[in-house]
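Supplementary Methods S3. Input chains for the assembly prediction are listed below.
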Amino acid sequence: MKNILYKSVLVAVSASALLSCKPNLKAPTPGTGNIDATRYVAIGNSITSGFADGALYYDGQMVAYPNLIAEQFKLIGGGDFKQPLMPSGSIGIGSTGNAPFKLDFSTDCLGVNSLGPVPTASVGDLSAFSPSANVYVSQGGPFNNMGVPGAKAITVAVSGYGDYTQGPGHYNPFFTRMAKDPAHSSMLSDAMLINPTFFSLFIGNNDVLSYATAGGAKDFITPPAMFDASINAIVDTLTKKGAKGVIGNVPDITALPFFTTVPWNGLALTRQGQADTLTNLMAIFGVNHTFVVGNNPFVIYDASVPGAFHGRVMLEGELVLLSIPLDSVKCHGMGTFKPIPDTYVLTAAEISNIKTATASYNTSIQNTANAAANGGGIAFVDVNAFLNKTKTGFVYNGIALNAAFVTGGAFSLDGIHLTPIGNALLANEFIKSINAKYNSSIPQVDATKYRGVKFP
Amino acid sequence: MIKKIIAFTLLSAPVLLNAQGFQVNLQGQAQQGMAGAGTALMQDNSAVFFNPGGMSFLKDNSISGGVTATIAHGQYLDAASSTISKTDNPISTPFTGYAVFGCLDTTKYASHFKFGMGVYTPFGSTAKWEDGWTGRFALTSLKLQSIFFQPTVSWKINNKIGIGGGLVYGQGNVELKEDLPIYSNGTYGNADLTGKAHGWGYNLGVYIKPTDKFSIGLTYRSQVNMNLNNGTATITVPQSVAAQFPSGPFTSSIPLPKVLTLGLAYQVNAKLALALDINYIGWKAYDTLAFNYKNNTPTFPDTKLPRDYKNTFAFRLGGQYHITSKFTARVGVALSLSPIKSGYVTPEVPDANKVNLTAGLGYKVCNRFRIDISYTFENLKRTDNNLALQMNGTYKTYLSAPGISLAYKFNRN
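Predicted structure tokens for the full assembly:
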């Protein structure tokens, strides 16, 4: 009997040992593969810099995709990743000296109060554009993040890209801030100061986007041959000493909410009388279109249309830019009596130019990726495919994301740059490609830790 | 047009997850010691649950009460990021209470009838994941409790066969919480769905004892549709979008599946008995989990989540050995096949095909009073890529369930 009691005590003790027993799942050990991530440099434009909500600011820089990649690189021996950070207390600055957008309520010209992007201040942190604000020494350059807002493939190797003595419009103030020697440095020469063992190159958006965001009215599309030569030259320089790397291609602009949010037929009429009046009046100006109750195409300025008015209705597939002043549309006849100016519209011809150039750039990028490193190739990220997937919408760990402006969660309030979670998912696209090419097993970023748009 | 711009056409619609019925097989300590087998082996008054047909074969009138502490530790390894998250589950304590009465005077035909009452927990689940875990937009916590009340009558037709049936009234509580990917000032929105559910069903059994040594049990516990008619959905989101995500009442219905069981028992000798139960569980009924909100908006439609479970089997093999006149030892092993198809595993029930190992001990304090204890251990691991959530990872859970019951017999001569 005692024996049995003794045994039951023994059973009870071993049972309680089992009670506190916890599962022990083990994360796989990150594998270095054929990579040396000690010195990683990222060359790119505003997306690489961490620009978001229309401006460069500290919080955005912290979630820049190369900074997130660098965090993961640390798991395989990656070193520090220095970025030319804006002060953490600064509101930030956009390319026109503007402040970033935030989501807030505002009242429009019709007195309607609604939620939308509004500037956080009337002007951005202009001190960042002062020539004396160079942070190369104060922040201990050279910098690993060589992402410069506004940079194109054809400007990466341009010396004196930050030379403010050239006068406004002839230098890039974002580069002036961070260049070792604004008068002589190029992005590429500063990047090479890192003596990179690994690089990422994601450039080319602005080679079409500068033209596109100006409605095709300003700037120019980089000719494909020039683009091709630039990309090849950059990759040659980067790989010359044996560095490995990854290159991303250029997304189609129709994946970006900046171009897709305002519909071409957003002119809403509610009464037949209103429609008839508009039909008759527009006919006087030479715009022959029967307006109806419901949605109608906007009237836009098109220089190729004969007559003094140069107006015509928009065609399906043509794009209105998010930069359009909506109060002018709602209260001051823009889109009807005042045709929408060229700077806010991409016509079918302009879109065709953009698409042709983008396709050609992407062929160059793919070919360069294949041929680089003496034919061994470098990793290639199909950013275009990733953003097209975003356009359709997808789910990540229970979070539904798509390319819808504000509500989609992937794009920040400027409709072009990504939210923190968008950046994290882009970083994962890079990591996936790197792992595939270099036989490494670098864990991806847990993107659930990063937010979408910030709501008031 | 501005309306078009700011209209919250589809603000990351909450992907709400279910209170899936995690079947609890903790309805009697003697059976728990034997991996849950007991449809053909009439141990005690838990026959109310295990086989109403055999209840009339019990020699005594009795009452009993038992409780089991289930302690579950879970982990999740996110495949892409290698992030490991863990659960922070509270201990849940499913309990049982049974009473069986009848006329003990075997000279009277009335002694062929027994009347019983059972209170038990057939389904339940508790999962609470640590703060900020990778899957928090699918689930942060789930508490599903159900209590069944079952008045039962059993008729011993003759010495070889008995039949019985009970009416089941089920009562339950559900509380489900998840985060919503709508961010403001350092916090995310969240949804909290709570409600009470009710449902009816029945439990039928046949008990056949062709020889002294061999017995067969067949039971059918019906599906119970737990209807949640007046739940409360509390949606917390940033103030600017609160109108798009209104809190308010909701309704839902969760099917707790039918279970068809064939049991076999064999009394090897005076000391040793073996029992086998085979369960066929009608999980196919759990096809979709729907929440119908009273206050819908374009951004907050009703939730319909595919579950697409399949019918499945469980096999339970147990043995018991009377060591002395006072002590009985029990062991068992069960194999349960998961009803969840691949692509449908969710963090509230990261179920897998699993093996349970059990042990138990009975102690007869005196003729009228006995104590039974049992211990169940379960280890499950499942890797899945949930299609709807796009959650790809590995779940691992250790579950320990020690339990105790006390039984008192009346009128024993």
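Chain A has a mean pLDDT of 93. Chain A touches chain B through 62 residues (CB under 8 Å).
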